[in-house]
Every structure is written in C-alpha cells, then in structure tokens.
Amino acid sequence: MTATLDTSNYPGNIINNKFVATAKTRHSLNPSNAQPLYEVPVATQEDVDSAVNSAKTAFKTWSKVPFEERARLLLQYADLVESNRTALEELLVKEQGKPLGLAKIEFDMTLGWFRAFATMEVKDDVLDENDERIIIQTFPPIGVCCGIVPWNWPVLLGLGKLGPAIMTGNTFIMKPSPYTPYTDLKLGELGTSIFPPGVFQVLSGGDDLGSMLTEHPGIDKISFTGSITTGKKVMESCAKTLKRVTLELGGNDPAIVCEDVDIDKIVPKIATLAFLNSGQICMLIKRLFVHEKIYDQFRDALVDFTKTLKTGDGFESDVLVGPLQNSMQYEKVKDMYSEIDKCSWTTALEGGVREASNGYFITPAIIDNPPDDSRIVTEEPFGPIIPMLKWSDETEVLERANRGEHGLGASVWTKDLARGERMGRQLLAGSVWINSHFDVAPNVPFGGHKWSGIGSEWGMTGMKAFCNSRSLWIWKKVYD
Fold it and tell me: pLDDT by residue (tens digit) across 270-284?
C-alpha cells in the first residue's frame, strides 16, 4: 500500500473496512484554479446507519483492547501515513489550497500528535482510601464517536480527533468537510489495513450528512470544529439525544503589543501569524493592538514585511498566502474588503482581490486604526485582512481585547515577562501566549471560552472528553 495509494480514485465511503459505493457522487474544486477535482461518494441515511451499526459492534471488543495494543496499532498507522505522506501532501494542496510547505507542517504535526497520543493513557484515579473503603474514579469510553472536520486543517483536525477517541477505547466515524473530502477519505482507506473493522470509518457527503450524524441515536459523542453559527446548530441537534459534545468554534484573537518590544524581531512573526493559510485558521491573530508610542513605526515595519509575502498557487515556491479555500469564503472576504471604501477605513496596506485569476486569490490588507465597532474589529473575517489599533492604557486595552463573544486565543508581546503574565491572566481565552501566538501541542488542552467553544481537545483534558466518569466505591469490611 505504501507505493500504490491512488489519490485520484474514490470507490466509496469507508464502512466496516470496505469501500461502499453510493448512487450519487459529487466533487469539490481546486481553489487555485476553480477546476473540478475527483468524484467522491455522497452518503445516504442507509450508509450512516450501516456505519453506526458497524461502530457499535466493533465497540464491544475494541473497548476491551488493552491500551498497549491500541497504542501499537496507532503507531503502526502513523508509520503507514508517513510512508504515503508525499502523495497525501500534494493532494491536500490541491483540495485545500494551502502552500505545500504548510501541508508538510500539517502532516508533521499530525504524526507528532499521533505518537504522543500513543503514550497518553487515561488511568484510574484513587480519590480516597481508608481501612473501610476505597473510592476510584474510572474513565470508561463513551461509545461511538463522530468527528465533524473543517476544511482549513482537515488532516490535523480530523486525525487529531481520531487519536484520542480510539486510544480511550471508542470507535470513530469521521465526516470531512464537503469542500475537502479527499485526503480524509484516503486516510480512512489507509486505516483499513491497520484497525479492526468498524473502529475507524469515513463518510463523505453533502450538507445534509452532518445532521444525519448529529441526530443519530446510535452516536454517543460529536466532536465538531467549525463556525460559531454551525456549532450552535450542532449543539441544538445533539440535544435531541443528549449526546456528549465538544465544540471548537471561531476565534477573533487579539494580540497586544507593548511599547518595549523589539519591533524588527517580532514583526515577521506577527505578520506570518496573521496571514498564514490566508488567514483561514481560527487561532491566528485577528486584532492587533499596538501601543501608541510605537504605533507608527510598528505599522510601517509590518507593512514593509507583509509586502514581501508571496500570494499564489500552493505548488509555487515561497508562497505563504494561497487562495481562499472555497467560493463561499471568497465571497465573504470580498464583502469584508468592500467595507474599506463603504466605511472610509484607512488602509496601511491596501490588499485586493485578484479578479483576473480563476482561483480565489486575495492579497493581504492591513486596516489602520479603525473604530472599535467596525466589522473588521468585531467579526472574524477568516481571510487575509487584519485591523491594527492603537492603545495607551493597560486596563483599557485588556477590556477592549476581551470584548465580544469570542475567546479562543490571545497574546501579549513584551520584554517584561512579569507584565506579560499579569496581562495574560486577565485575557478571556482558552489559550494565551506571551511573545508568541498559535502554539499548540498534543499534550496541552485546546479549547475556547465564551462562544468560541465548549470543552477541550488534546491533553489529558481532551482525552478524558472521550470518556465518561464513573465513581467506583468499594467497601472492604461489609462482611466482617
């Protein structure tokens, strides 16, 4: 299989370790040129029922498999993915649009995550013990789990759900985005040679597939990554059967730059962390607050560096900003760019839409100190455009940074680490970085505050999110 993985052939969904063809197929578009990609299956309710039944059957035995055996299979699967990664990375560029270098980073991270998950055993916790009894908190698996995967990081955010689910004894159904089904289907195909039937399945479909899964009475947990609007619908749907649910939703991350920073050192990192993947990462910098004492100098340096960032097809060399992933997102970002003239925003860097291109290309824009109630400040554009705002008072900037319903990530940039930590502890976000942004790790919980999500993924917190909690009371001297 390492030499023969065909990334252009999709004979069916992966159900019970078999290809299951569908009467209807569909295709996505390459966002760099808007050309159609390969035909993929469109799952029906019958396909969902079949996958759920297979997962329920597999759970009976997989949940009893020792941790060491699950870890062995996960590591074996990681090795198989790694041996096919070149073809998979190229496929990811075609369907998602990200530069090849970023696709390689996504696979690097995914493989690292898998190898870490294989060491993260959720163990019993002895809560209390005396001569009469012992109380143990145990963590049994939930059952059939489903991961609903977004289009911006389909590999890491797909397999990043799979790993914790199956390592804790659950079976797992993955639903890739209709915009990016290809790589995830191939990852499911590779899984058929490693995992027992029903443990890891992949269903591709249209917009109606999500509700089929969230409403299905045989699915016990949904792990969803996507927009706040869709996340609310997922939660409402899951409530009908009281499913367990983890939601990782949108962000509008603030970055606060203090007056003592070394501008030349941090500007390249901040610009990259604003425009990476064309701004299509929930935890990128979305609002940039810069102290008024250095504002003009910082703005000019940021503009100069951003002008060096190359926009283009993901297979071109040195590209950082690829296309927007799909026409819907392209139109949303174009609408945000149209606000520049409508609202008379001042642009430090104009940016713009490449209308002559067949792909969904938009070059980076920096908005110079717009009002705090502007759309560009209050909404997450999910594209290569950011506002830069002045601040002078620490208490005030923290209040401004904490405004709104988002609370995914935030950062403070300063040479004074004590000041940075003090400010960081006041930011309402699930991840806060001092002198960095968008650092993630498999052993560190990842989730949001407020409308940016419910629950956490990764870390032991995320592993336990795929478990129930059971308090086991054992009385020692009842029959003495």
Answer: 999 999 999 999 999
Residue 39 bears catalytic tag: no
Q: Is residue 466 part of a domain?
A: no
Beta carbons within 8 Å of 181's beta carbon, 6+ residues apart? 28, 40, 95, 204
Share of the chain above pLDDT 70, in %: 99
Comparing C-alpha atoms, which of 155, 72, 63 is closest to residue 119? Answer: 72
Q: What is the pTM of this model?
A: 0.96
> For the domain that residue 283 is a member of, what is the CATH number?
3.40.309.10
Q: Where a domain ends, among 407, 423, 441?
A: 441
Q: Which among 95, 248, 339, 457 is annotated as catalytic?
A: 248
Structural domains of the chain, count = 2
Structure tokens at 449: 């505050």
What is the C-alpha separation between 302 and 187, in angstroms, rounded? 39
Q: What is the C-alpha separation between 43 and 24, in angstroms, rounded?
A: 8
Token couple for 421: 């930590």
- DSSP for residue 168: T
Between 294-303, 345-354, 421-430, the lowest mean confidence (pLDDT) is in 345-354
Residue 396 has, within 13 A of its CA and on its CB side, a CA count of: 10
Tokens of 184: 């995830």
For 100-115, what is each residue's pLDDT tens digit? 999 999 999 999 999 9
Strand partners, 141: 467
Domain that includes residue 324, residue range: 253-441
Among 287, 259, 284, 250, residue whose Cα is nearest residue 371: 287
Q: What pLDDT shows up at residue 221?
A: 98
